[in-house]
Design a protein that fits this description.
The protein is mostly helical. The chain is built from four helices and four strands, in the order ααααββββ.
Length: about 130
């Protein structure tokens, strides 16, 4: 590897280390009551059997996890929100919680029926469908 390439990689690693050091750590004390409210909102949405409410509860939770006090930390049981989405959407419109975004895999199956309009909520063909 040339010295120029090595220097570029070293600078990139340094910038990455600086960003990681500057990133705010989650405030777990402040997260607890917010997380409890998120779980309660998801439970209410699921019990309502309204796909829009479930999708919105998931979107709101993902947005909250990207912002303070969570600062990008996702709860250990984040899959609770994924399962709720899976349960309200048709199998052809799988929506994935990934990182801080919701993405759809419906566009990856050209033979699937059009299921991008669910419960009055439009799901676009290309990710992301949610920006935190």
């Amino acid at each position: 590897m040339s010295s120029d390439v090595q220097a570029i990689l070293d600078r990139a690693r340094e910038r990455g280390d600086q960003r990681a050091a500057a990133a705010a750590k989650p405030d777990y004390q402040a997260c607890r009551p917010l997380f409890a409210r998120q779980k309660a909102a998801l439970t209410r949405a699921v019990k309502s059997k309204d796909p829009e409410r479930v999708i919105l509860a998931c979107r709101d939770a993902v947005r909250a996890w990207a912002a303070p006090p969570f600062n990008g930390a996702w709860p250990d049981d984040w899959s609770r929100w994924q399962r709720a989405l899976d349960d309200v959407l048709p199998w052809t419109a799988r929506v994935l919680l990934e990182g801080p975004r919701l993405t759809t895999s419906a566009a990856s199956n050209p033979h699937a029926p059009d299921a991008r309009h669910v419960g009055g909520f439009d799901i676009p063909d290309t990710p992301p469908i949610l920006e935190p």
